[in-house]
Design brief:
This protein has about 270 residues and is mainly beta. The protein is about 10% helix and about 40% strand. Strands 9, 10, 12, 13, 14, 16, 18, 19 and 22 form a 9-stranded antiparallel beta sheet that branches. A 4-stranded antiparallel beta sheet has the order 1-2-6-4, with no helix packed on it. Strands 5-3-7 form a 3-stranded antiparallel beta sheet, with no helix packed on it. Strand 1 and strand 2 form a beta hairpin. The radius of gyration is 22 Å and the shape is elongated. The termini are far apart. The mean pLDDT is about 85.
Length: about 270
């Protein structure tokens, strides 16, 4: 994620390069910075691409040391997560679904959705697909099965796993309600997908607990129960994606454009 680039014998720049399609929080910790003065912030959020973080300038001391370590976490602590966002159920309109809380993962809000008829997973929210081959510092030691990470506009991350085939790939822009994966087949014909929503939490980072993401219990839209936080042993029927749900992630300018286009279509 980071590299030390010597501009000359008296000055070096520490840069970070993000190869993923979502933001990362990057922190530099100098073990023993001797003989150099630091300029710049050693804690920053970077998007895709390269960014200079810190400049080290020799201060005249005889001895010098620039040893440092880097930690990086997927997410953006500067964005405000919307806890009231209404998510779509991960099935096509008209299909029913049940769920149970997945209690073996690190997020308490991770759901295991049970599919009755469909074998396709639909995106619960729009966003951009992150690169599953890359990992942040907080998940390097975890078992990494194939997963789909979708980075949402408000900095939260939707994670899907327990599927057999992805239909979207790193860098893809995904719309709410778009097919994103084919389900695994289980014995007795049952199929399920696991899903969670979480965000990078500055309080968790500062706590030093080793866990840096906090989970969200999403609100889902259904045809038979409205907008609710799901309950176990209850069947929910998908109404697909409503106009109100689509407008949630749009900027003011995007909404105006959407409404103008809609008005034009209605006049035809």
């Amino acid at each position: 994620m980071s590299c030390l680039d010597w501009k000359d014998q008296n000055r070096a720049v520490v840069s970070a390069e993000n190869h993923d399609y979502c933001d990362y929080y990057v922190r530099l910790d100098f073990k023993d910075l001797m003989g150099y003065d630091q300029r710049g912030n050693n804690v920053q959020t970077i998007g895709r691409g390269r960014k200079d973080l810190v400049t080290l300038v020799k201060n005249g001391a005889t001895l010098g040391s620039t040893a440092y370590t880097t930690r990086s976490y997927r997410g953006n602590i500067n964005k405000k997560v919307n806890p009231d966002f209404v998510y779509a159920l991960p099935v096509q309109s008209g299909d029913s679904i049940r769920f149970r809380v997945h209690r073996k993962e690190r997020f308490t809000s991770l759901f295991s959705f049970k599919y009755a008829t469909s074998d396709t997973v639909y995106a619960c929210r729009a966003g951009r697909v992150c690169d599953n081959r890359l990992t942040d510092t907080s998940t390097k030691t975890l078992y990494r099965m194939e997963r789909i990470f979708i980075y949402h506009n408000d900095g939260s991350i939707g994670e899907y796993f327990q599927f057999s085939k992805p239909l979207v790939y790193p860098g893809d822009d995904v719309k709410m309600g778009q097919p994103i994966a084919i389900l695994e087949s289980h014995e007795k014909g049952r199929t399920a997908v696991a899903f969670s929503v979480y965000f990078l939490d500055k309080n968790m980072i500062d706590s030093g607990s080793g866990q840096v993401h906090s989970s969200i219990v999403p609100i889902f839209h259904s045809a038979n129960h409205g907008d609710v936080k799901l309950e176990e042993k209850t069947t929910y029927i998908s109404e697909g994606v409503t106009e109100e749900m689509l407008l949630q992630d749009m900027s003011k300018k995007e909404r105006e454009k959407y409404m103008k286009n809609k008005e034009k279509q209605n006049k035809k």
